[in-house]
């Protein structure tokens, strides 16, 4: 059975075909969707079913998507793995070498999840990015309050709290009376009775501080909306396709709903991709530890 190797660049794709005895000439295509479909038609006309390509930056993604849709058997290969294989002929082009290695079954493919998992992974990874951005904005607002002599974070356990946001909103509106600001902080009885909270909320906020605080709060609100949007899409997709997996994962101690969705997105939800349980745990150990630790809330 003929095989094809694709040498992928930013604006061009070099395609070669190998039948085990000889190479075809290297044919060049552009990276537009129309040209990629022409590449697929060319491979069909040559009776090629198996295609391999290097994982060059993100340039391979649209090529993979279109050829996957056209039902080719695809293999994505680490370029370093190809370079380490011995026996390359000096006159062979990259695409020809990839085609020959694929024909001889010498290539180990990378794990490329299904389109459904790719969609979920897009949502979960963007969700995680947004959560990190949210933390940065909260830290920026706290730093700004400290510059104004307001040490609210010294009296509350977490700046990611309703009390912190209520005080920030009051300061943006121009409220500076510490007596009124104290009433916006939930609980904290000990610091209230000792007067420490009132002291911590007594500061000097200037106009440029207030403007900066206002723009930070606007960023925070936008990120909150985006987090809610991505979380909603994650839940819809998981409820439709991975409900049983989610239910099973959330029975594990420390695994929340969010953690379970991220675990499915990162592992692909298909254990057959891993040869042994040892390889699976080795691949996911650090990543899963981060997920469970950071997203241990429901």
**Helix-strand sequence:** EEEHEHEHHHHHHHHHHH
Integer average pLDDT: 86
What structural category characterises the helix and strand content? alpha/beta
Q: Tell the overall outline.
A: elongated
How many helices? The count is 13
Tally the beta strands.
Answer: 5
Largest sheet: 5 strands, mixed
Residue ranges: pLDDT <50 for 5 or more in a row?
Answer: none
Physical arrangement of strands within the biggest beta sheet: 3-2-1-4-5
Short overview:
This protein is α/β, with parallel strands linked by helices and 298 residues long.
Protein model, in words:
This protein has 298 residues and is α/β, with parallel strands linked by helices. It is built from 13 helices and five strands. The protein has helices at residues 33-45, 60-69, 79-84, 94-103, 115-147, 162-173, 178-182, 189-194, 196-200, 207-241, 243-249, 257-267, 277-294, and strands at 3-8, 12-18, 27-30, 50-54, 73-77. It has a five-stranded mixed sheet. A hairpin with a 3-residue loop joins strand 1 and strand 2. The two termini are 51 Å apart. The mean pLDDT is 86.
């Amino acid at each position: 059975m003929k095989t094809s190797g694709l040498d992928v660049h930013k604006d061009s794709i070099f395609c070669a075909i190998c039948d085990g005895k000889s190479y075809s000439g290297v044919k060049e295509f552009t990276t537009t969707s129309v040209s990629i479909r022409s590449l697929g038609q060319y491979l069909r006309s040559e009776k090629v079913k198996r295609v391999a390509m290097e994982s060059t930056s993100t340039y391979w993604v649209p090529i993979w998507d279109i050829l996957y849709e056209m039902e080719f058997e695809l293999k994505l290969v680490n370029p370093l793995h190809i370079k380490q294989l011995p026996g390359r002929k000096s006159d062979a082009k990259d695409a020809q070498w990839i085609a020959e290695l694929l024909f001889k079954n010498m290539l180990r493919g990378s794990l490329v999840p299904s389109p459904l998992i790719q969609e979920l992974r897009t949502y979960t990874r963007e969700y995680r990015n947004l959560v990190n951005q949210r933390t940065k904005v909260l830290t920026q607002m706290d730093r700004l309050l400290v510059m104004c002599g307001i040490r609210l974070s010294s009296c509350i356990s977490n700046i990611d709290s309703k009390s912190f946001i209520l005080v920030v909103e009051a300061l943006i509106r121009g409220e500076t009376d510490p007596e009124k600001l104290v009433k916006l902080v939930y609980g904290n009885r000990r610091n209230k009775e000792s007067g420490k909270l009132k002291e911590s909320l007594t500061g000097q906020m200037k106009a440029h501080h207030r403007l900066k605080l206002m723009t930070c709060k606007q960023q925070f609100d936008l990120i909150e909306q985006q987090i809610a949007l991505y979380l909603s899409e994650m839940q819809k997709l998981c409820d439709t396709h991975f409900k049983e997996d989610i239910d099973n994962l959330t029975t594990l101690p420390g695994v929340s709903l969010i953690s379970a969705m991220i675990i499915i997105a990162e592992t692909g939800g298909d254990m057959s991709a891993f040869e042994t349980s040892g390889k699976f745990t080795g691949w996911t150990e650090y990543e899963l530890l981060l997920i469970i630790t950071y997203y241990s809330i429901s």
